[in-house]
Design brief:
The chain is globular. The strands form 2 sheets. A 6-stranded parallel β-sheet has the order 1-2-5-6-7-8, with no helix packed on it. A two-stranded antiparallel sheet has the order 3-4. It has 237 residues and is α/β, with parallel strands linked by helices. Helices cover 38% and strands 9% of the residues.
């Protein structure tokens, strides 16, 4: 389904409902086929969750070419990967019954069986301010951190040409630190090529790479690291 102009922006809700319950589909390629707005990104997240909740087969998702558009839209997709029984009833049962539900029926749980996610050429710049975040009282992890750190089946993440800057290295630091609470990451292949992490980002990443022995393949080429940045990484790996 890649390179189908304007396809993604016109996908009906029924497509996502079907995606959530299809049993045999392992790979879905929506790359370079137009963008998804917040509603569609949210529906995609819900479909991913229900596919996993029903023990179905979706493992590979290609969203290259700005399908999700932005970091904000990705967060909406992630939010909707947390689903409850009431959500399931809305999509697969009788929506009228939802009004009669209560309590545990609305308790959401995170579901995601993806092994490979491609977001190349998507604007994933977060603008994350680590210093101010750390000052907060029991600060909640950014959603992208939650996604990367708590998706236990995810082994490959492609973030080439995603407009990542030094601040975004802090997001990756939090995501890949195995000493943090709730860490379940199994990311073994990480592509960060053609971003703008620079030497400051390399220094941040080097700190976490010293602790993480899960990552096996890293592409951080074309990031304006300079000699200092390269040395930071070389000493850590």
């Amino acid at each position: 389904m890649s390179y189908c102009t304007s396809l993604n922006g016109n996908l009906p809700e029924q497509f996502f409902v079907a995606l959530g319950e299809v049993r045999t589909l392992k790979s879905l390629d929506l790359s370079f086929s137009g963008t998804m707005n917040v509603t569609l990104a949210s529906n995609l997240g819900k479909a991913i969750a229900f596919n996993a909740r029903k023990d179905n087969s979706l493992e590979y998702l290609n969203l290259d070419g700005g399908v999700i558009q932005s970091y904000y839209n990705f967060n909406q997709m992630f939010d909707n990967m947390n689903v409850c029984e009431a959500d399931h009833e809305r999509w697969y049962g009788d929506s009228a019954k939802v009004n009669k539900m209560s309590g545990k029926d609305f308790e959401k749980k995170y579901y995601n069986n993806l092994k490979n996610l491609q977001l190349n050429s998507t604007n994933m710049a977060s603008g994350f301010d680590y210093i101010n975040w750390k000052k907060g009282f029991q600060p909640e992890d950014p959603k992208f951190v939650q996604f990367l750190a708590r998706s236990k089946n995810l082994t490959t993440v492609q973030l080439k040409s995603c407009q990542l800057h030094a601040r975004d290295a802090d997001i990756l630091f939090l995501s890949l630190d195995p000493t943090r609470a709730h860490f379940a990451s199994n990311i073994q292949v990480l592509n960060l090529a053609k971003n703008n992490l620079q030497k400051e980002g390399a220094k941040t990443l080097a700190t976490v790479f010293e602790k993480n022995n899960i990552l096996q393949v890293l592409d951080i080429s074309h990031n304006k690291l300079g000699v200092a940045g390269a040395i930071y990484l070389a000493n850590a790996l």
